[in-house]
Structure to design on (222 residues):
């Protein structure tokens, strides 16, 4: 499913969202709801193994992705064209990010299939928004071959998930913490809309939509 998202994200973005304002606000609302209602409680479980270290790992995950983006921002501020090297770095971390999303899927299976569907819906909208941002900055590279690299990364992560033994609790908590940090950064950068290009109505709609799906998941899985 995530592979199809990367291939068709441009069409899906145009089909689902009539304006950038709607896209950023609705996607941001869903992503913020996911963080507070699901991801942060998952990190609390990690405290049982890592203690406060789980918060440090989450911070490291955030800083790694922030550092890569800072390189691109600085290049633009200095009047330089964003180089291919910047795209390679961002694409590499996007591949890692996609791998972490795939890694988290079995945890949703462990809860119930409604939670799996909720996770897939939330992350699909998130990836559509992330792909659109990458395409806007690196249109030629992303459309010609970048999106296919992301598809390959997803397939590789899926094969690793299928053919390797499940990770122990420590590794699982570390990867979840890194995912949390990277997801939070992506939300703040891409999906939490700026005041001049946002709609509070659509932001609240995204939050409510996620909460409705979550309530349905609890009812069906409970």
């Amino acid at each position: 499913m995530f592979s199809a998202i990367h291939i068709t994200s441009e069409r899906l973005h145009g089909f689902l969202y009539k304006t950038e304002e709607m896209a950023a606000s609705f996607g941001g609302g869903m992503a913020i709801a996911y963080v507070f209602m699901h991801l942060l409680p998952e990190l609390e479980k990690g405290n049982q193994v890592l203690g406060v270290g789980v918060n440090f790992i989450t911070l490291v995950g955030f800083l790694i992705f922030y550092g890569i983006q800072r390189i691109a921002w600085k290049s633009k501020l200095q009047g330089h064209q964003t180089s291919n090297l910047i795209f390679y770095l961002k694409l590499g971390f996007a591949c890692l990010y996609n791998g972490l999303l795939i890694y988290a899927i079995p945890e949703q299976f462990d809860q119930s299939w409604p939670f799996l569907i909720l996770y897939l819906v939330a992350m699909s909208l998130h990836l559509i928004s992330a792909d659109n941002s990458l395409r806007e900055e690196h249109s030629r590279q992303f459309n010609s071959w970048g999106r296919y690299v992301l598809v390959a990364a997803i397939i590789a992560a899926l094969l690793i998930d299928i053919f390797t033994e499940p990770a122990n609790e420590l590794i699982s908590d570390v990867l979840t913490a890194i995912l949390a940090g990277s997801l939070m950064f992506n939300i703040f950068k891409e999906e939490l809309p700026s005041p001049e290009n946002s709609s509070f109505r659509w932001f609240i709609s995204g939050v409510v939509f996620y909460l409705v799906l979550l309530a349905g998941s609890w009812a069906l899985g409970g």
User: Anything to note?
Assistant: Helices lie at 2-16, 20-50, 53-77, 84-111, 113-137, 139-163, 169-191, 200-221. The chain has a mean pLDDT of 76. The radius of gyration is 17 Å.
